[in-house]
Amino acid sequence: MVFFSKDEQLENLGNGILEATWSAFPTLARNQIALTWIVYDPPVSVNTGGALTPDAFWHHPVRGFNYRGVECIYPASIVKLFYLVAANEWIEKGMIQTSKELERALRDMIVDSSNDATSLVVDILTGTTSGPELPPGPFETWKQQRYMINRYFQSLGWEDMETINVCQKTWGDGPYGRDRAFYGEMFENRNMLTTNAIARLLHSIVGGVAVSSERSQNMMALLKRSLNSDDLPKNVEEDQVTGFLGGGLPQAAQIWSKAGWTSQVRHDAAYIELPDQRPYLLVVFTEGKDHAQNRQILPFISRLVGEAIAKSGQNAIAKGEA
Questions:
Q1: Which CATH architecture has domain 1-69+223-322?
Q2: Residues whose CB falls within 8 Å of the CB of residue 225, separated by 6 or more in sequence, listed in order
Q3: Are 282 and 21 in contact (CB under 8 A)?
Q4: What is residue 237's predicted lDDT score, i.e. its pLDDT?
Q5: pLDDT recorded at residue 314
Q6: What is the dihedral of CA 194, 200, 203, 207, to 10 degrees?
Q7: What is the pLDDT of residue 156?
Q8: pTM of the entire structure?
């Protein structure tokens, strides 16, 4: 059972946005996109600094729409969102000790999407290191340690987390040695996530109930993106705004996000606030080599969702619901 309730208005809006997207990008196949969209109606329960207890928060109803939201898809760097939460949980529980170097790695992992930083975070979380292939016995122990992150998210009891896999590092050129063996001959053990699972995790962070209120706020600070072109990093392949969901927003919007991209996928997961409108959460995955290089699709979808939010807000005011 998903954590949001289906809603006829959002179903109509969401399906309309998808149809418009396929019309604008006709080579994007219907099985090359997945989407989860959550809308926060008044009284808004998120980005309040953790004003609600976890129990009250999870019983607060939210409306949502998803398309292929339960399909397991390679998440690229969006998996780093899961490592961020896990690291904060481990520190909170005293399982690992924080340090300047770990804090630097967590920042670079989220703000800059550094794969090198992510490697250190995964090593610290699991007590493992990359390196040459291992004999069968030690390799089995190593694998079980790397599955610790999977076991943590499954222990939350969220149905959305039952099918995910978040045990692999992220790479530039790809895995080698024991990491390559861990992927499996056909890469069958690579990371896999659903847009619903990502939406639920991001929902918990924005709601202030991921690990603790204070840690959720710290994670939000790392996820905050500026839409001002002068603030975006220069001389980088991707800045996590241009060509992603932030690229379809007006300057006055606020966004907290984590993007992911490879030569085969282009994804983004964001919590967005537009002036005087209902805040919302949006996760969009696109697959296929041509679409991964296309920097227009995600901003196009983001713009349509923002317009739908504004239109639905005007309708709510007219009905006296806002």
A1: 2-Layer Sandwich (3.30)
A2: 240, 241, 246, 255, 256, 257
A3: no
A4: 80
A5: 55
A6: -160
A7: 96
A8: 0.96
Q: What is the DSSP letter of 193?
A: B
What single letter denotes the amino acid at residue 305? V
- What distance in Å separates the CA atoms of residue 240 and residue 225, rounded to the nearest whole number? 8
Helix (H), strand (E) at residue 120: helix 115-126
Structure tokens at 219: 């994670």
Cα separation, 206 vs 253, in Å, equals: 16
The domain segmentation of the chain, as residue ranges, is 1-69+223-322, 74-193
C-alpha pair distances (Å), 303 with each of 186, 247, 260? 38, 8, 19
Handedness of CA 229, 306, 273, 211 (dihedral sign): negative
- Cα(257)–Cα(240) distance, rounded to whole angstroms? 8
Q: What angle do CA 46, 71, 87 make, to 5 degrees?
A: 50
Sign of the dihedral defined by the CA atoms of residues 234, 237, 243, 249, in that order: negative
The helix/strand count (H/E) of the chain reads as 12, 7
CA dihedral 310, 313, 319, 322 (to 10 degrees): -160
Mean pLDDT by 10 residues, the chain (322 residues): 91 98 98 98 92 93 97 98 98 97 98 97 98 98 98 96 98 96 97 98 98 97 93 82 96 97 97 97 97 97 97 55 52
Scored b (16 or more CB within 10 A) or e, 50-83 reads bebeeeebeeeebbbbbbbbbbebbbbbbbbbbb
Look at residue 321 in the predicted model and tell me its pLDDT: 54
Pairing between strand 5-6 and 63-67?
A: parallel
b/e map 137-172, b = 16+ CB within 10 Å: eeeeebbeebbbbbebbeeeebebbeebbbbbbbbe
Angle subtended by helix axes 213-223 and 80-92, to nearest 10: 150
